[in-house]
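Exercise: predict the fold of this chain.
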Amino acid sequence: MSISNSIFNLIRNTGMKYVPKDRVNYKILERQAFFRLSSKVELRKLRNKFKGQRCFIVGNGPSLNKCDLTFLENEYSFAVNGIFYKTNEMGYKPTFYVVEDYHVMHDNLEEIKAYETEYRFFPTNYKHLFGCVSKNTLFFNMNTGYYQETSPNFGIPRFSADCSNEVYCGQSVTMINLQLAHYLGFEEVYLIGMDFSYNIPDSAEVDQTVITSTEDDENHFHPDYFGKGKKWHDPQLDKVLNSYKMMKLVYESSDRCIYNATVGGKLEVFERVDYESLFKR
């Protein structure tokens, strides 16, 4: 059953006014069914809270092992998914922690629930997995139209200027982070660990866009990140590139900047800067 059919059936079965399937508003279908559970009030309080500051968005490529993350101790940073492996390894913890992907959430649920940072952001459709949560755990409305073939916005990058209302998917959780960083007021964003290259091993089990690993992960900073038995999505880097271009356009149009401070890698959309040069010795 497709996402659209699932949400349509939920709308029909929960007593909402009946609407013929071919007339369901795509804006309703694009939003997760749990959008009324968002932390809208709390998210509004964070708008421009960090205006004028800089932040780092931490990717999970192998190059992250070439970055001294102790430099980020007094910086604002976003990190995602299995960053807890790096925390266990050397103590680094981000200011903001985000998980978007269904497989990441369900394959690492206990680790994610136990991973405490100053702020945690998750889509509302995962709220039922957490039970009682601390006040620093915020749930946002995730618009999934990007992934839905029934939506006129299928495969089209979009940018939310109001993350308390909704945040748009864009093929990578980094796009969620870039929207949140903009909403929080950050004016300079530095990307690290964004290698922008993937290899799907011959040994992997591939079911359309879902990949199941059968060995250690070579595409991330830790072999267990998407290690044996874990599921992940085909990254489709051509689509990620289009989303990056959209993010760059929005930031530049609002007099803000995104820089690529990754050590090496293949991402050339953003101006490159040397990571270590950003810190006073």
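Check your answer against the key: The first strand starts at residue 54 and ends at 58.
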